[in-house]
Sequence to fold (110 residues):
Amino acid sequence: MGDYHYYGCEGHQDIHQAARLYAQAAIKNDPHVSCPINVYKSICKDSPRTEAYIPCSISLYRIQGLEIWSIYEKPLKVIGFIVVAVITTISMYIIFTHMRNPHIVQQETI
Fold:
């Protein structure tokens, strides 16, 4: 279906719809309908409309992110958990330290 919209069958070319369909097919890893990422990049670059650049780039980054996520899902979850735990621990330490020893304003002696 992406080719149908990209090449403009019946005289109506819709680059945005083609990009959406290619992205959906790539996410589903459907070999019959998806196009390689290099072809997808060329579709984004060759679009005559400049307003297609941002939606194409966003969907391309989404596809690449989902591909990375599918390969490294468990390590990314573990790293994310560790990062959240460290940030939470540091934040709680700062809060409790501040609550125990609030900053005391010292008066200057004349």
